[in-house]
TrEMBL record:
The lineage of its organism: Eukaryota, Metazoa, Chordata, Craniata, Vertebrata. SMART domains: btg1. Residues 94-113 form the Anti-proliferative protein domain. PANTHER family: ANTI-PROLIFERATIVE PROTEIN DOMAIN-CONTAINING PROTEIN (PTHR22978:SF40), B-CELL TRANSLOCATION GENE (PTHR22978). The gene is Btg1_1. InterPro entries: Anti_prolifrtn, BTG, BTG-like_sf. GO terms for biological process: negative regulation of cell population proliferation. GO terms for cellular component: cytoplasm; nucleus. Gene3D superfamilies: Anti-proliferative protein, N-terminal domain. This is BTG1 protein. Belongs to the BTG family. Pfam families: BTG.
Amino acid sequence: APSGAAMRTEISTAAAFVTRLLRAAGGIGEEQLRYFRECLQEALREHYKHHWFPLLPSKGSGYRCLRINHQMDPLIGKAAGMIGLSHERLFQLLPSELTLWVDPFEVSYRIGEDGSICVLYESPQPGGKTTKPLESRTGCKEEWRIGRASPSKNYSMMTVSS
């Protein structure tokens, strides 16, 4: 299979995750979110095209890594621009420290510089090698949900939408 097909799950997982963070922050319409997700997937596909090595999953990992750390990731920024979101607005909506690793067979993320790494997607590698120790990763799937919204923020969001 061409690498394009092979990357599809990983890329759609990553794009859906960033989209979900934006949705959780509120204030962006579903139509815009859908378009954002498509634009981000397209940008990732293009960016990763010659940097995807299923036989050496960690090769090029730094290149594929999406990162927000006082600077907006250019690929996320570009997709957001397509729906008219400025970098300033993105910094308000997304965690200020976010790292998203998109590698063959595994998509994981970390919020905060010393947050725990959470796996969004994992599939067994051909040949059954596991790449990274997993013990640090249990039970943090929903961490972004809890860690992000403080009760007061949740409350004000509810009053706005009701």
